């Protein structure tokens, strides 16, 4: 379906969408591939693959340096990608968009460049119990270095944040609130706008991990009012090795770079270096130019399809999958929040999650088994690992049926 046709219709043509993703059309272990591991990484539409190929076929050069035509083209493509990311997040300026390797690097950059200089002995960083390790460990490292304390906002049985504990935990010493928009282990969509507003009232810097939100919902950083927002290209149908850190300009001006080198300077002498303005100050060295080009193509793809429509499609998949999996005996859902993105996590009584994953793979169904880099969530529910099906814009109701048929088979084989 053409872009224009897509934009005009409200019908979600999932088969048309699937035709854009070459990798989906293959058999795995003698079965049609059912890819339900989108939370780990999503597949790439041809538009992304072609954009990267075209960049290397026609435009490859280094950015911001050469005077020749290819260098100018590469620079233009790279900076256009920044503008595309700005539009995607509705940032006020493209200068507030920093290209990084992914969410992990984005959070480490904020922890080191913004938080470390802010934190004194006895200050506090508040995170939540449902964070991915990449939104825990960098804060632990910085807290340790600065003599600061890490505080944790707990979750309840459903996997929702216990908001009533926020005021108790966000006190006079709290400098940073870092929380995920959507939980990768539970699917919970957090009320980030409300928490950002409450944190801002207390003068707390807010850092949002949008790794699992960017593929599933419209994001408007100005409406949210956050100071920082991070996401990874590879989870939003773009390439690996590229991601975005949005930062509000007043904070970016204050933030320190944590890598020095080329590209990030205005003037260097042996006595002193003057840094470039944001975002270049934070982009030392040759960046992932082809990655940025691919990311721009991915963001254009999802924007054209429309995140509202994608969200509706995925909600239908999630509701159908939740109902169907619940109907099976001996399965416990982990994460039953009232607001969820397309993530279904569960355990089968008496069967290890890895065995579920392996048997499902024999059926051609790709799901994730493990702790999902969220060990504190596993601890909360008293399990070592769970099985997770995570949906993307190309999944179908028939694939949910394949998931459920696979789970029946697991129960049969394992006698569960
Ligand atoms: N934050 C969240 C909420 C995530 O889900 C992930 C990756 C990250 C941060 C880190 O992103 P990266 O691109 O820098 O690695 N989550 C997962 C997952 O759920 N399964 O594999 C990776």
Q: How would you characterize this protein structure?
A:
The protein is of the alpha/beta class and 416 residues long. It folds into 2 domains: 3-32 and 307-414, Aspartate Aminotransferase, domain 1; 50-303, Type I PLP-dependent aspartate aminotransferase-like (Major domain) (Aspartate Aminotransferase, domain 2), CATH 3.40.640.10. It contains 15 helices and 17 strands. A 7-stranded mixed beta sheet has the order 4-10-9-8-7-5-6, sandwiched between helices. Helix 8 links the parallel strand 7 and strand 8 (205-209). Helix 3 (46-59) packs antiparallel against helix 11, helix 5 packs parallel to helix 6 (137-146) and helix 12 (307-326) runs parallel beside helix 15 (397-414). The longest helix is centred in the first third of the chain and has 21 residues, at 69-89. The radius of gyration is 22 Å and the shape is globular. The model is unreliable at 1-8 (pLDDT under 50). It binds ligand 7TS. Ligand 7TS binds at residues 39-40, 102-104, 132, 134-135, 180, 184, 209, 211-212, 232, 368, 372-373.
Topology:
Layout: H1 3-8, H2 14-19, E1 27-28, E2 31-32, E3 34-35, H3 46-59, H4 69-89, E4 97-100, H5 103-118, E5 124-128, H6 137-146, E6 149-153, H7 166-169, E7 174-180, H8 192-201, E8 205-209, H9 221-224, E9 228-232, E10 243-247, H10 249-254, E11 265-268, E12 273-275, H11 289-305, H12 307-326, E13 331-333, E14 343-348, H13 353-362, E15 365-366, E16 368-370, H14 375-381, E17 386-390, H15 397-414
Parallel strand pairs: 3-15, 5-6, 5-7, 7-8, 8-9
Antiparallel strand pairs: 1-2, 4-10, 9-10, 11-12, 13-14, 14-17, 16-17
């Amino acid at each position: 379906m053409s872009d224009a046709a897509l934009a005009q219709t409200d019908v979600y043509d999932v088969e048309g969408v699937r035709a854009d993703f070459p990798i989906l059309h293959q058999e795995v272990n003698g079965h049609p591939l059912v890819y339900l591991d989108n939370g780990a990484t999503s597949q790439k539409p041809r538009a992304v693959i072609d954009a990267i190929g075209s960049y290397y076929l026609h435009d490859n050069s280094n950015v911001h340096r050469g005077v020749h035509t290819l260098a100018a083209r590469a620079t233009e493509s790279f900076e256009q990608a920044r503008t595309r990311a700005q539009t995607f997040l509705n940032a006020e300026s493209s200068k507030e968009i920093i290209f990084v390797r992914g969410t992990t690097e984005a959070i480490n950059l904020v922890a080191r460049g913004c938080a470390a200089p802010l934190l004194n002995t006895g200050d506090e960083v508040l995170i939540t119990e449902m964070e991915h390790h990449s939104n825990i460990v960098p804060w632990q490292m910085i807290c340790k270095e600065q003599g600061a304390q890490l505080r944790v906002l707990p979750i309840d049985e459903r996997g929702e944040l216990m908001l009533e504990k926020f005021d108790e935990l966000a006190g006079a010493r709290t400098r940073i609130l870092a929380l995920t928009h959507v939980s990768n282990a539970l699917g919970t969509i957090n009320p980030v706008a409300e928490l950002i507003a409450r944190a801002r009232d207390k003068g707390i810097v807010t850092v949002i991990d949008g790794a699992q939100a960017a593929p599933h919902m419209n994001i408007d950083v100005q409406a949210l009012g956050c100071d920082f927002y991070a996401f990874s290209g590879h989870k939003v149908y773009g390439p690996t090795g590229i991601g975005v850190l949005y930062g509000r300009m007043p904070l970016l001006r204050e933030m320190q770079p944590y890598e020095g080198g080329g590209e990030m300077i205005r003037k260097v002498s042996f006595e002193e270096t003057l840094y470039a303005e944001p975002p270049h100050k934070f982009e030392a060295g040759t960046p992932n130019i082809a990655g940025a080009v691919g990311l721009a193509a991915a963001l254009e793809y999802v924007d054209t399809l429309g995140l509202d429509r994608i969200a509706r499609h995925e909600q239908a998949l999630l509701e159908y999958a939740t109902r169907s999996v619940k109907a099976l005996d001996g399965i416990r859902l982990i994460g039953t929040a009232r607001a969820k993105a397309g993530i279904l996590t569960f355990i089968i009584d008496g069967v290890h999650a890895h065995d579920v994953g392996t048997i499902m793979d024999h059926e051609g169904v790709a799901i994730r088994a493990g702790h999902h880099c969220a060990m504190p969530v596993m601890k909360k529910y008293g399990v070592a690992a769970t099985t997770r099906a995570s949906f993307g814009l190309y999944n179908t109701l028939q694939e949910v049926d394949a998931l459920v048929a696979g789970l029946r088979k697991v129960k049969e084989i394992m006698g569960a």
